[in-house]
Amino acid sequence: MKSTEAQSNGATYFKPTILHLGDDIRWNHDLYAELARKFNIIRTHSVGREAFKSALKDKTWGDFVAMYRPFWNTGGEMGNWDEELIALLPDSCRLFASAGAGFDWVNTRLLAERGIVYCNSAAACTESVADAALFLILSTYRLFSWSAQAAHSCDPVRFQDAMSNIAAVTHNPNGSVLGIVGLGRIGYRIAQKVRVFEMEVCYYDVAGLEERAKEVGAAWCASLEELLRRSDCVVLAAPFNGDVLLSDKEFACFKPCARLVNVARGKLVDENALVRALDEGKLSAAGLDVHASEPNVNQDLAARKNVMMLSHAAGASVESHVGFEKMGMENLLGWLERGEEGLV
């Protein structure tokens, strides 16, 4: 294990090394100072995949025990963490503390086989994502996408069209059924917040989570199909495990003119099937924060006045970034003190 010598009260001890990926710390400077007291921190800054691989092969950074990526927008220039990349990590590495809520870009199973624990910072962006989900839910009922597009066009004809005709095809959400796929932190918070809309909530989650559901008054659905048939609006808040969740078969189960909101991962939805579902009236509207081929957006969906789109920004807030940065450091410090029991 690579380490550096340090002195404390006349005694010599060794600090383990961590690899800080990406940009400088922006907010939690006191906590970073504590991290620096207990670890030898090596910086990579921004480095592309080939350069990163070369440095790992050459042992440029030595036998570090952990990696820390505090921001989603930086420190990921090396691309997906697949077998090619993970195989080059030193045997000493035991922890990867990263920003963000998803893990579709990293092979967590392979990390586990190498004895490396992966920690994201999903809790830090829960509030922001849940708020964005409420915005998208309301948008699908009230077709704010149509109204917004018309206003932004600066075209008086389009403005008048939306103003005059939107009331005949939009609804209030109260009294309808919201189906949440995935009752994790974000799904749970959506269920709490959506009470203000006076909606009935049901959910489907492979983990069951009956006690958590009772706390928010959410009714359990035994299958995804049951939830789809029951819901007036479906919200995806589940992780992407490599499989498409909604395609033609599933869209056929939706109530006529139901709605879809996705604040999870774009690849959970077959976008061509979504287009067909909208064309055929199986869905009346959709709200999409995430997209299957980011940063490319499906042009057919983007052109529709009944589809509200965001740029994968549901979790994007200063508060989320502060939390990402903080949680990663808390995981590193907790792991140093108590092993896996110390992880946040």
Task: Briefly characterize the structure.
The chain has 344 residues and is α/β, with parallel strands linked by helices. Helix content is 37%, strand content 19%. The longest helix is centred in the last third of the chain and has 21 residues, at 318-338.
Q: What structural category arises from helix and sheet content? A: alpha/beta
Please provide the ordered H/E string of secondary-structure elements. EEHEHEHEHEHHHEHEHEHEHEHEHEH
Radius of gyration: 23 Å
Biggest beta sheet attributes: 7 strands, parallel
Gross morphology is elongated
How far from one another are the termini?
24 Å
Helix content: 25-40%
The number of distinct helices, counting runs of at least 4 residues, comes to: 14
Give the averaged pLDDT, no decimals: 94
Strand content: 15-25%
Low-pLDDT sequence parts: none
Total DSSP E strands: 13
Biggest β-sheet: strands ordered side by side in the sheet: 9-8-7-10-11-12-13
Family: Belongs to the D-isomer specific 2-hydroxyacid dehydrogenase family.
Protein name: D-mandelate dehydrogenase-like protein
Pfam families: 2-Hacid_dh (PF00389), 2-Hacid_dh_C (PF02826)
Keywords: Oxidoreductase
Explain what you see.
The protein is α/β, with parallel strands linked by helices. Helices cover 37% and strands 19% of the residues. The two termini are 24 Å apart. The mean pLDDT is 94.
Which helices and strands appear, and what pairs or packs with what?
Blueprint: E1 3-8, E2 11-21, H1 29-38, E3 40-45, H2 49-57, E4 66-69, H3 83-86, E5 95-98, H4 108-113, E6 117-119, H5 126-142, H6 144-152, H7 156-165, E7 177-181, H8 185-193, E8 200-204, H9 210-216, E9 219-220, H10 224-230, E10 233-236, H11 248-251, E11 258-262, H12 271-279, E12 283-288, H13 299-302, E13 307-309, H14 318-338
Parallel strand pairs: 2-3, 2-4, 4-5, 5-6, 7-8, 7-10, 8-9, 10-11, 11-12, 12-13
Antiparallel strand pairs: 1-2
